[in-house]
Amino acid sequence: MQTSIILEDNKLKQFCKELNISSDKIVITINNNKAEYYNANDDCYYKLDLEVAKKYI
Asked: Tell me, what's the pLDDT at 12?
C-alpha cells in the first residue's frame, strides 16, 4: 500500500527543522516499508527513515 502527503504550514516547518533542510514544498511517500520525500527546491527524491515519515503522515 502506498500513502502520500503534501506537507504544509507547521508540519512543513517542523519537518524541515527536524531534517535541517529548506524547502517550499515537501511530499512524503510511504510504499510498503520504504519511505522517501520529494524536495521541490532540489527537484529530487530522498530516502527517509520510516519512523520519521510516520510522524508526518
From this structure: 97
Burial of 28 (0-12, 13-18, 19+ CB in 10 A): buried
- Alpha helices by DSSP H, listed for 1-57, are 9-19, 50-56
- Measured distance CA(24)–CA(30) in Å, rounded: 20
pTM of the model: 0.90
Q: In this predicted model, what pLDDT tens digit does every residue of 12-48 receive, in sequence order?
A: 999 999 999 999 999 999 999 999 999 999 999 999 9
How many angstroms separate the CA atoms of 34 and 17, rounded?
22
Provide the β-strand partners of residue 33.
Answer: none
